[in-house]
Write a structure and sequence with these properties.
The chain is 17% helix and 38% strand. By secondary structure, it is α/β, with parallel strands linked by helices. It is globular, with a radius of gyration of 15 Å.
Length: 126
Amino acid sequence: MSQTNPVIYFEIPVHDLNRAEKFYTAVFNFKFEKEIIDGYEMSLFPFEEASIGISGALAKGDAYTPTKQGVIIYFKTQDMNATLEKVVSEGGKILYPKTINDLLGFIVAELEDSEGNRIALHQTIN
């Protein structure tokens, strides 16, 4: 049996699915597929079976409450500054400013999305 990374899927709670889709599309250029799963409205992030990494969904329903507490999901970016500019222009907020870790070779920042969730950005330093 081969070893895999332990996390395979995530769901980001939303109040307004259309507003959240607009935010994530504007900031990251994602395209979503809408589904009803177990009676809940979902907008699925892009997923390629053969690609490395995990995917997930924006999720709306009584079981889903956006929050700035709890698990933080990191989205990869190639250009931290441009992504943070898009976050602010789309109504998001910077919660933890761009921070460079030269020793480990990455840049991180945390933000509040259109729904009130804390998510993070990660950029590898080339």
